[in-house]
Amino acid sequence: MFLIKEGKIIFPVKVTFTLLVVSAFFIVSYAHNTKITHLHQQCELISKTAATLFTFSLDKALPINENIEGMIMATNGDVNGFENIIPAFIPQTPSIMCIQLAPKGKQSQFFPQMPEDKIIPDLYNSPYTKKFSYFAEINRKSYLSGPYFFDKNEPILILQDPVFLRTKKIQGEFWGFCTAYIKINDLFDQDTLNYLNYSSPPCSYKLYKFDPYDDKEVLLSSNTDEELIEPVITRFNVKESSWALYVVPKNGWYSHSRLFIISIILFFTCVIISILIGFLVTTKDRNENLEKLTFMDSLTDLYNARKFTLLLRQY
User: Fold this and answer.
1) Is the dihedral of CA 296, 301, 303, 305 positive or negative?
2) Residue 13 Rama label (left phi>0; alpha psi -120 to 50; beta)
3) What whole-number distance in Å separates Cα of residue 220 and Cα of residue 192?
4) What are phi and psi of 300, to 5 degrees?
5) The dihedral of CA 244, 194, 196, 204: what is its sign?
6) Is 147 exposed, middle or buried (0-12, 13-18, 19+ CB in 10 A)?
7) 149-173 per-position pLDDT tens digit
8) Can you tell me whether residue 273 is helix, strand or coil?
9) pTM (2 decimals)?
10) Which is it for the CA torsion 84, 86, 91, 97, positive or negative?
């Protein structure tokens, strides 16, 4: 074969093939890394936007406590007749399962009526809310804790708003809590949940809330059961609670099959170009050998009579 000389592939073919393979490797690596970087930037933007949407969904459910807190302050803690007022707020926020009024942390009224085994009678003694009740009173901040599972598999968040009455005291007199029980399954509207499915590129996500006791991540919402590989993570806080949104492209960061096909195509391209280079080199060598055999004497290595005659004709 013209590419083989003395049982070995000719040197120009070896050099050409090596250079082409090395160049192809760097081109593929650069293109691959550039695509991954661009895809990562897209997912970061999508993740931050989605986190904002989730935060907005949470914020829509939370102000109901602030409204009721304002009414309690306006009546100086007198909640008689609230059974006719509070139920009007609940239909506006479908995720609210129940509103509980708890003077000094003790159960007083709850709307709508719920089985007592699903309502915390004493917020300061319940393992669910004890820690946050003290934090809320001392820090004068609202705390969103959970998820908890009071009713089989339906996860519940508990929002505790401390209420302080206007008195002569500088900080006001602590009245108790306005507590909202929030159904996570109804918390996020469909547009928010569909955003990641129809984004560009479409993304798989998992929304976690950090457990308040052991700081472990608790899954609240997801559109996939598969493990997310190298996700983009966006963390955000809502009412002193920590959340994390994990996002990856639905089709993965890269396609192994596509990368394999491109590599095979480039490999055969390198082989074909190397063969062409080898053919050109051997053709040139063959032409030079033919010219040498035609115009030079094999013994003296000098030009022969045929060459001499050709030169005379030229001049």
Assistant:
1) negative
2) alpha
3) 14
4) -95, -15
5) positive
6) middle
7) 766 667 788 888 898 887 656 567 8
8) helix
9) 0.70
10) negative
How many Cβ atoms are within 10 Å of 192's Cβ, its own excluded? 17
Residue 96 near residue 181 (C-beta atoms within 8 A): yes
Structure tokens at 8: 């070995």
pLDDT at residue 168, rounded to an integer? 59
Letter string b/e over residues 205-236, b meaning 16 or more CB atoms within 10 A of that residue's CB: bbbbbbebeeeeeeebbeeeeeebeebbebee
* Cα–Cα nearest to 164, from 67, 73, 63: 73
Number of continuous H segments (helices) and E segments (strands) in the chain: 6, 11
φ, ψ for residue 225 (rounded to 5)? -100, -5
108, two tokens: 């007083």
Q: How far, in Å, are 112, 272, 290, 302, 312 from residue 309 at the CA level?
A: 118, 42, 18, 14, 5
Contact call for residues 237 and 62 (beta carbons, < 8 A): no
State the pairing for strand pair 143-151/232-238. unpaired
Residue 86 amino acid letter: I
**Spatial distance between the Cα atoms of 79 and 85, rounded to a whole number of angstroms:** 10
178-182, 230-234, 246-250, 307-311: least confident range: 307-311
